[in-house]
Amino acid sequence: MPAPSQFAAALGQTLDTTSHESLGLPASWQKYEGKVRDNYSLPDGRRLIVTTDRISAFDRVLGTLPLKGQILNRLSTWWFDKTQDVAPNHVLSVPDPQAVLARECTPLPVEMVVRAYVTGVTSTSIWTAYQRGDRTFCGHPLPDGLKKNDPLPAPILTPSTKAAHGGHDRSASRDEILAEGRIEARHFDAAAELALALFQRGSAICRERGWILVDTKYELGLDAKGEVIVIDEIHTPDSSRFWLGATYEDRVAQGEEPESFDKEYVRRWLSGVGFTGDGPVPPLPDEVRVEASTRYARAFEAIVGEPFVGDPAPPLERLKRNLARL
């Protein structure tokens, strides 16, 4: 079990943002800031991706979690290594616990979301749609009689549009997305095939470890040769839901939520205080931040099979030192 004490000790050392100056990077490297990752494009066709400790939910940045960036970066690169025979990815090297050097790609304008259970609390979740009576979701027919957190008959692909900063992502079917002209059919279909293959591999590995990969989202892009490859991250507590398999059936039978070790813990806390994406973001209490990181680390340990020990050094100092070797 991960020790909450290491996360409590790191509360004052979280990495909220980066800059060329703070990382010692050339000004010619073009920066793009996502909700969680800061990206720097090098002139030679490579991209430096720094995973900060920022956390987002309901399409809003909420603050930081201690050591979160290290957990995500290490877990995601572990998964990229374990799935490279299933889907090509962008990773070239890992120069720091919170950074990846990758091939520069053009992101596809659609996220590939794969779901195996009817669950969720956001406005775009399959449970929200099912609860209001929808029996078709992203083009897939859904059977009557499902309860929250029940398995679907089979995993389904439910693509999501990518909203601009401040906007909300929207689930849509393949036909709807192609009709909007967002993406070519050949690229969509190649991305969909990779996403379903990755989900199958990820589910099998999690099942072996006593965990359930509930759903996840994949970012894909076109590399310099025009090939569709996996980018960003895969199978982390930020992009996926993980449930503990041993207690799932009993908890659902009793009307309780499954034991989750992912961002859903934070979403539920926010929903409990009345925040679902609109209005001012409520500050996350330190105890919530520590508990969230502890759950992320438990997912890491269960999947990777080794203890998570974070690097306690000030992150900007460590990153600047390690990135100087690029």
Describe the structure.
- Helix 3 runs parallel beside helix 9 (286-304).
- This protein has one domain (1-326): ATP-grasp fold, B domain (D-amino Acid Aminotransferase, Chain A, domain 1, 2-Layer Sandwich), CATH 3.30.470.20.
- It is globular.
- With 326 residues, the protein is α+β, with helices and mostly antiparallel strands.
- The protein is 33% helix and 25% strand.
- It contains ten helices and 17 strands.
- Strands 8, 9, 12, 13, 14, 15, 16 and 17 form an eight-stranded antiparallel sheet that branches.
- The two termini are 35 Å apart.
Secondary structure layout plus pairing:
Layout: H1 4-9, H2 20-23, E1 30-33, E2 37-41, E3 46-51, E4 54-57, E5 60-64, H3 68-83, E6 91-96, E7 99-103, E8 106-107, E9 110-118, H4 126-131, E10 136-137, E11 140-141, E12 150-157, E13 160-161, E14 170-171, H5 174-179, H6 185-208, E15 211-222, E16 228-231, E17 240-244, H7 245-253, H8 264-272, H9 286-304, H10 315-323
Antiparallel strand pairs: 1-2, 2-3, 3-7, 4-5, 6-7, 8-15, 9-12, 9-13, 9-15, 10-11, 13-14, 15-16, 15-17
Helix pairs in contact: 3-9
Give the CA-CA distance, first to last residue: 35 Å
Supply the CATH superfamily name: ATP-grasp fold, B domain
At the first level of CATH, the class is: Alpha Beta
**What portion of residues is helical?**
25-40%
Largest sheet: 8 strands, antiparallel
The whole-number mean of residue pLDDT values reads 95
Topology order in helix (H) and strand (E) letters: HHEEEEEHEEEEHEEEEEHHEEEHHHH
Q: What is the correct CATH architecture?
A: 2-Layer Sandwich
Annotation, overall tally of beta strands:
17
